[in-house]
Amino acid sequence: MEIPAKLPFSKRRLPPRVVISYIFDYVIIIACAIGFSILNKVEPFHQHFSLTNISIQYPYAVHERVPMIYALCISGLFPLVLIILYTLVIDGLFSHHKPQDVASGKRKLRGPHRWKDRLWELNCGILGLLLAQGLAFVITQALKTACGKPRPDLIDRCQPRANSTDLFPGLSNSTICTGDPALLTDGFRSWPSGHSSSSFAGLVYISLWLGGKLHIMDNRGEAWKALLVMVPLLAASLVAVSRIMDARHHPFDVITGSMLGVVCGFVAYRQYFPPLSEPWRKGRAYPIRTWGSDPAGPDSVRYVGSKRESSSALRNPEDERMAPDIPSSEHARPDASTYLQSSNPYASNVYNRRPRDHDADDGAWSSSEDDVTNGYEMRQQNHGAGHHAPQYDPSNAYVSQTQPLTAHAGIHVPEPMAGPGRPLTDMPSRAM
C-alpha cells in the first residue's frame, strides 16, 4: 500500500511520518475489533450461585426490548450519519460571514469551510466515534469474561436437574444445569452491561461533538442548544434501562457499564477535538499532528494582546449593531478581557490562524488552522493606536460591589465620576 503524498483537495504534501501516525489510530480500532471477537468466543468464568437467590430467578426474556443490532444503530449508525451530514452539508450554512464568489459576487451558500477542511473534520469525527465504540466493546467484553457474574435470569437459563440442591453450603455451580449451553454461557456475562457501555460511549461522544459544533458554553445561555445536546444522552439512558426491564442485567451492571461508556466517549472525543470549555474553537478538530516533534509550551504559543488572539470572547454582532452610539469619552469600561489575563494560555498559533501569505499556494491545509475561527463571531483584539473597547450602554455595566476600582486596572471612568480632587476609591457603587 502506497502512502498518499498529499491530502485530498490540497496541494500541500504530507510527510510520511504524519500519515504513519494516523495509521496507528486505525490499527488500534482494528485491534479492538479483533480483540472483541476473540473474547466473545472465550468461555467466561462461571461464578458459584445459589438456587435460592431470588435476584437470579427472573424469567428469560426471549424478545429483548432493544436487541443488540438496534443498540448499534442507535449508538453507532445514528452518530455516523449525523457526523457525515453535518460535516459535509450543514456546517457553514448559517455562518454570518460567508465568503463571496469572485466571479459572480454572490455569497457562497456552503459557508467559509473548504472541502479539504470538511474531509479532515469528517476523518477526525469518524475516528473518534470508532475509537469510543472500540474501547467500550473490548473493555466490556474483557471484564465480562474475567468476572463471570450470573445474569438475573440465570436459573431459567440453567434449567437445573430435578431435585437439585446446592452442592456447597448455600452455593451451586453450572454442573447442575441442563439448559442450552450457549444461553448458559451468556448467562455468566452480566457485569458490566454491554448495551449500556456501547450506547453511552457512542452517544456521549456525539453529544460532546455536537456541543462543540454548537459551542454551547459560549456564555449566551441558549437553552435549545443544551436540549439538543442532551437528546443523545436520553437515548443512551433508555437503552441502558431496557436491560433492567428485560432482566438481562442487575442495576449495578447497568450503572457501571454506563460509567465505562461515558469515560470511553469522553476520552475518544478529546483525542481529536478541543474541550467544550473553549467555545472559541467552535468544535473544530485539532490540526494534523506534528508527530515526532516536541510539543510547544504555553509561553511559546501565546498571542496575548495580538489581534490574532484566539481567546477572545465570543460576541453577538446583532447586539452591537443595536447598541446606541456613545462617545468614546462616555465608555463605561472595556470588556472582561481588559482586566483579566487570557483565559486560554494554551492557544496555539498553528491551531487558530491561517497564514495569509500562504493562501495563494494553498498553505492552510488543516481544518483547524483555517480562517473560520478568526473570521466571524470572534472579537479581534488590537491594542494599537486609536483602538477602543466595544461600545456598551453604561447603564447596563456591572460595577463590582466587593473590589474597589483602581487606577492600574485599565478601566476608563467617565469624567463626571472622576472629577478633580476626587479619588477613584471614593466613587459610589452603582446600584444593581
UniProtKB/TrEMBL annotation:
| Keyword entries, A-Z | Membrane, Transmembrane, Transmembrane helix
What GO molecular functions are on record for this protein? phosphatidate phosphatase activity
Location in or out of the cell: Membrane
Where does this chain mainly localize?
Answer: membrane
What membrane topology does the annotation report for this chain?
Multi-pass membrane protein
Region Disordered: which residues?
297-432
InterPro entries membership: PAP-like, PAP2/HPO, PAP2/HPO_sf
Which residues does the UniProt record annotate as the domain Phosphatidic acid phosphatase type 2/haloperoxidase?
124-269
Compositional bias segments (type: Polar residues):
338-351, 393-405
- Where are the membrane-spanning stretches? 20-39, 68-89, 119-143
Q: Which Gene Ontology cellular-component terms appear in the entry?
A: membrane
Kindly give the CDD domains that the UniProt entry links to this protein.
Answer: PAP2_containing_1_like
Q: Which GO terms describe its biological process?
A: phospholipid dephosphorylation; phospholipid metabolic process
- Biased composition (Basic and acidic residues) is annotated at 306-334
**What Pfam families does this protein's entry cite?**
PAP2
What family is it from? Belongs to the PA-phosphatase related phosphoesterase family.
Protein name (record): Phosphatidic acid phosphatase type 2/haloperoxidase domain-containing protein
Per the UniProt record, the source organism is: Penicillium freii
